[in-house]
Amino acid sequence: MQTATGIKRVRADGKSARVTIAHLAAETGLTKGTVSRALNGYPDIAEGTRARVERVAARLGYRPMAQAQAIRTGRAKALGLVMQVSEHDGHSPFLTDFLAGVTTAAGSQGWTLTVATAPTGEGMRDVLHSLVEDRKADGFILQRTLRQDPRIEYLRDMQVPFVLYGRCEDLTGISYYDIRGGAAMRAGVRRLIDMGHRDIAFVTSGCEYNYTHLRTEGFLAAMAEAGLAPTDVVWDVRDHAGGVRATRDLLAREVPPTAIVYVIDQAALGGYRAIEEAGLTVGADVSVMAYDGIPEGAYASPPLTTWKVDTRAAGAALARMLIERIKGEAEPEALRWLADATLHIGGSDGPPARTSAHLRQKMNNQKGGTT
Amino acid sequence: MQTATGIKRVRADGKSARVTIAHLAAETGLTKGTVSRALNGYPDIAEGTRARVERVAARLGYRPMAQAQAIRTGRAKALGLVMQVSEHDGHSPFLTDFLAGVTTAAGSQGWTLTVATAPTGEGMRDVLHSLVEDRKADGFILQRTLRQDPRIEYLRDMQVPFVLYGRCEDLTGISYYDIRGGAAMRAGVRRLIDMGHRDIAFVTSGCEYNYTHLRTEGFLAAMAEAGLAPTDVVWDVRDHAGGVRATRDLLAREVPPTAIVYVIDQAALGGYRAIEEAGLTVGADVSVMAYDGIPEGAYASPPLTTWKVDTRAAGAALARMLIERIKGEAEPEALRWLADATLHIGGSDGPPARTSAHLRQKMNNQKGGTT
DNA sequence: GTGCTTGCCGAAACCGGTTTCGGAAACAAC
DNA sequence: GTTGTTTCCGAAACCGGTTTCGGCAAGCAC
Questions:
Q1: I need a surface site. Which of A230, A296, B205, B349 has the fewest CB within 10 A?
Q2: Runs of H (alpha helix) within B180-257
Q3: d(Cα A358, Cα A250) in Å, to the nearest integer?
Q4: Which nt has its C1' nearest the CA of B69?
Q5: Cα separations (Å) of A132 from A23, A34, A79, A102, A116?
Q6: Strand ranges for A200-275 from DSSP E
């Protein structure tokens, strides 16, 4: 094995063999065990020896084979991401960013990401279970968390570490990273009120998602602070088409809103359509504000005023948090992080051009005119 | 170890221990080695013995630990997916579907998916390299392939198995799954010609992507077959904003097109805007057809006529192909597959309401009218 | 000088599998 | 009955690491 020029790096079959811990042992004159302990920071290794081992390891380009470590330590150095595939969820415009954040943060510490998809319900248990059983993942990142999420219950039972992108109802023993969606909505509504709006409607998303409730609370808080009665909350608007319908309904009311805040951008863009259909102008007659920061929003006319989230940073933070949790270095409650969304001002909101009553009148006139 | 009720499954610390091959050996009265060979189909195991081992394995719920297998076999039973993260690529609406296809197909054979992201250029080499070195992936799926893709060169050099979603210029020794985008465009243009269109423009996407060229060839073929001169091909339109600009330019020409075919949906939706700005009606004055099938297209008004791709099926097929390649069961050239896109007819195309000349006239009149 | 720690490392077992090798038993051929 | 062949399985090495255990030598107190 040992040659004059050092360690053999190329096998007889021509394939380049990896540098193993045995090579390091031969090169340093120590045993495998000692090298291993030196690299893993055991206290019973002399400081000089450790330094020497590390130098040699660096020179030879040694990289421990994660699989081999796993069979003894039980840790695969892999994070798991299990995505729910439900029917009404064709849009995950940020998945790429999110994955980029997770994988680069994990990769910089030598960890990788294992992705799986699971149907809702029983199938999901199986997927999580087999990933844990096969040690393909040491812990999980859960995104798009529900208020009561079956994944959470299951992982809790199995005592498998996990972190949440978003929050859920019962937060005991849970680590999470989330965006202050409630604060964003509150500040946004406040902004509209300061502009002069009084009749502000709110259009939510799926009730099963936790973020829906947080953002709604933010809206209600801002209205309450201003002493306004939040009359119009439309629930469960999940997509573009839903946004069209909800907005049509709102505009058909006796007292139409002069501003509409949407929990998701898609719904807001649907709102554009309904507003234009009614012969009104987005941003002047009816102000629109939303949340997410999808690219389509910037292309819309007028560009959508919306709260943007740094999805990539979220992914990176979650990866780091999960690794900490897996290592057991921190209590779950110590690993919680809240970040702020940032408002990107387009042209879709502004001071109301006319009062709600005048809006009603304008729509009635137009209806008469075109008929 | 052996108890009256069978094998101990729970360790003293309360953690449920996995069933190892040693358990199987004890239960069957054979040795570890024999059990291993029985499960892996070695020819020197009696048929009866193999059947018995398999029954016991099934009863005990034995699942070999992939990591342990990997250190001897050198195979981690993991597929790799390395995504390029470039700046101008915020849209991967199908990533979820694609991942769902890959992971479910891989999972059904006991394989998992390791995802990594890499910047373009040198960083990508490093990511691929370390994934291979660390045996975190036995092979790779490359999506969004370029005509000349550095990833391909590198993996070829490293002799690492890989499959392509899409094709590239030099196909020797390459396995791929692709959609017949050229055929789709050709049939689509043919449809427009049959409807009566003669002035048809074509708006492409990024030149570095191979699909751009294939679809353009389809367009040119259809035009040539009909004996029409394809005057208007606009290159390198990558997104919504680009679609707006390109379409404005096309409509400003002396002989404006009565139909525009876009290589990607996003650009087509940008085209909607430009067409409406010009005072024209999508589907009547100017027909629009595109390719991808993004959800926003169905919500547009009129709904976009576009070629839809079954991304999930593509992912599943690629996973199966890659596993075959890794196992070395088939020659690369034998693993190639082409699927068809399906046309989803919205209301954005139809017989031309007026000729190109009349279109010009109408636009000129309107410009005069509003000025 | 003796006895007791302490620091540091080697030896060897171990993790959960795979693979090679050799040999016993069964079978066939002569 | 002896001599090959097969058939089928046990024994043990092996993969690349980690972890336990024990012991040697130096350092310290007495």
A1: A230
A2: 181-195, 210-225, 240-251
A3: 15
A4: C17
A5: 32, 31, 11, 19, 12
A6: 200-203, 233-234, 259-262
For residue B80, the cross-strand partners are B114, B140
Contact flag A103-B93 (C-beta cutoff 8 Å)? no
Put simply, whether the predicted model's pTM sits higher than 0.90 gets the answer no
> Does nucleic acid strand C have an atom less than 7 angstroms from the CB of B204?
no
Per-residue pLDDT of chain B (371 residues; tens, 9 = 90+): 333 223 334 433 434 468 999 999 999 999 999 999 999 999 999 999 999 999 999 999 999 999 999 999 988 999 999 888 765 554 566 888 999 999 999 999 989 999 998 887 778 888 888 888 888 899 999 998 888 888 898 898 888 999 999 999 999 999 999 999 999 999 999 999 999 999 999 999 999 899 999 999 999 999 999 999 877 899 999 888 899 999 999 999 999 999 999 999 999 999 999 999 999 999 999 999 999 998 888 888 899 999 999 999 999 999 999 999 998 878 899 999 999 999 999 999 999 999 999 999 999 988 765 54
Collapse the DSSP code of A73 into the 3-class scheme (helix H, G, I; strand E, B; otherwise coil) and give the result: helix
CA distances from A315 to A163, A228, A285, B137 (A): 11, 38, 38, 22
Interface test with B, best of A19, A67, A109, A296 (most B CBs within 10 A): A67
Footprint of strand D on the protein (CB under 7 A): A 17-18, 20-22, 32-33, 36-37, 39-40, 42, 44, 62-65, 68-69, 71-73; B 29-34, 44-49, 71-72
Instruction: Read off the amino acid at residue A72.
Output: R
Q: CB A270 to CB B299 under 8 A? A: yes
Q: CB of B46 within 8 Å of any CB in chain A?
A: no
Which residue in A71, A95, A239 is closest to B71 by CB distance? A71
Restricting to B residues 226-245, those with a Cβ less than 8 Å away from any Cβ of A are 239-241, 244
Question: B126: closest CA among B102, B158, B79, B89?
Answer: B158
Residues whose CB is less than 8 angstroms from the CB of residue A313 and which lie 6 or more positions away in sequence, other chains included: A101, A339
Which positions on chain D have an atom < 7 Å from some protein CB? 7-22
* Cα–Cα–Cα angle for B14, B17, B19, rounded to 5 degrees: 155
Count of Cβ atoms closer than 10 Å to residue A247 Cβ = 30
- Inter-CA distances, B162 with A96, A369, B82, B98, Å: 21, 64, 11, 16
Residues 298-357 on B with a CB inside 8 Å of A are 299, 301
What does the alpha-carbon distance between residue B371 and residue B369 come to, in Å, rounded to a whole number?
6
Q: Is the CB of B17 under 7 A from strand C?
A: yes
- Write the residue in B103, B135, B295 that is nearest to A117 by C-beta: B103
Q: Which of A67, A103, A136 is closest, CB to CB, to B117?
A: A103
Q: Which two tokens stand for residue B36?
A: 């291993």
A146 beta partners: A209
- At A71, list the tokens: 């069979």
Spatial distance between the Cα atoms of B200 and B254, rounded to a whole number of angstroms: 14
Contact residues, A window 112-151, toward B, CB-based 8 Å cutoff: 112-117, 127, 130-131, 133-136
Q: Amino acid identity, residue B86?
A: S
CB atoms within 10 A of CB A159: 10
Residue B185: HSE in the Cβ half-sphere, 13 Å Cα cutoff: 31
Which residue in the block uniquely carries the two structure tokens 């009635």? A364
Q: Which two tokens stand for residue A140?
A: 């999980």
